[in-house]
Design a protein that fits this description.
Blueprint (H helix, E strand, L loop, with lengths): L1 H36 L8 E2 L2 E2 L5 H18 L1 E6 L2 E5 L4 E3 L1 H6 L6 E2 L3 E3 L11 H6 L2 H13 L4 E5 L10 E9 L6 H5 L4 E3 L3 E4 H7 L7 H15 L5 E4 L27 E4 L5 E8 L2 E8 L5 E12 L3 E6 L8 E4 L4 E11 L5 E12 L4 E6 L53 H8 L15
Parallel strand pairs: 1-6, 3-8, 17-21
Antiparallel strand pairs: 1-2, 3-4, 5-7, 9-15, 10-14, 11-13, 12-13, 14-15, 16-19, 18-21, 19-20
Length: 449
Amino acid sequence: MEKQQLVKFSLILSVLSIFIFSFTYFGSDLFSAQTSAKQVFSENTTIGNFDVSNKSQDEVATYIQKKVDSWLSQANIRLVYKGQNYPVNTASFVFDVEDSVSSAISGAKNELYVHWEEEALNNLNLSSAIMAKLNTEKLTIKMQASAQKLIPEIEIKLEDFLPAEEQAIISTASVKLSSNVESELIEGLVPIEILPNSMFSLAAYANENGQVNVSASTFSQIGSALYKALLQSDISIVERHISSQLPNNIELGYETKVDFSENLDLKFYNPSDTSYKIEFNLNGQELEAVVTGAPPTYEYKITATDKQEFKPRIIKQYSPLLKQGQKSVQKEGKVGLLIKVNREIYGETGELLKTEFISEDFYPPSHRVEVLPLAPAVIQTVPDSTTVSDTVTVPGVDQNDSTPGQPSGTNPTVPSNDGEQQQPVDEQANDEQDTDDGGLWGKPNEQPK
């Protein structure tokens, strides 16, 4: 009996020992967790981009989690490379709100823990050349730092994470100069620098270099060479004009008329994040425009299609100063022209990505003007009245309307049976009788049925 009581006492003592040990070991952590959950952050406490002062951890965790969920569903994140956008899916960002709140230090600036998965780059269709040179480690740091602030619009330029590219020739174009161009001006042209995301004006360029008074013909030829070279890049043409007649030295579709006195300017815009440089070279009677810059992502080709010609008319004028058989050409005619210019954009593998309409140039025909002598005067003669015969035609005797010596179509007076003369038949009525009506009203001698 005493032995059973001893066993029971030992069991009770063991249970109490285990309870006391467990409470001592786990109770402090449980109490600490409950206390920290109710702890209120002091003033000047931030987590990420949020001020969490005077809020408990539970309140902060709920508040930040709602902000994160809203950002993940609405944020617009994109990588940009040479004007091309590459959208990034927000699902590639993983936020750890719980650890961010629990490890936050009261009264200090704390981070919002977020991790960006680099594997998302594989879904952006970046070229192999870009991926091989891209510094993904620095890009990851930048992406995570931007996401910590939960900014709704994030744009990151890939050029900042790629090595600097060597300058290359983007395009060239040449124009054969006319004889009246100022060669000294061409040789002294200052190279043009087109800054990223900026507008360029040829009028402003001429003003900066003290060349506003240069002839419009000279600057038109400079503008034509410049325009043709720029079409082979991603630069956008903002303002351009053409003449009423195509100059003989300019290729159809690439003429640019520049006349500062008439506010006719050449303007274009650089949409990329890299700058371009344009230099002019004078090779004999040819002006060459050379565009250099970072190698473009795409290839640009210019096509001129749907060419049409319109023949000029001949306008005749008469002058009393010319003799018969003479002819003077006052103005030579010129054929009218119509052409459409497009820009085709090709990808890395040579596939056609897009076709952009550039312009439709129309030059109306110039008509030919010929001066001829006046035609000689035509003298009209009146027939002699003595040649008219007094012979008359009596109805029913002779059905011929005209007799020898008498003009056809006359209606003489015929005596009637009662001695009265019949009045002449009206000429209009006679004409209506002679008109062939195709038998619509029957024949004159036809008896009624």
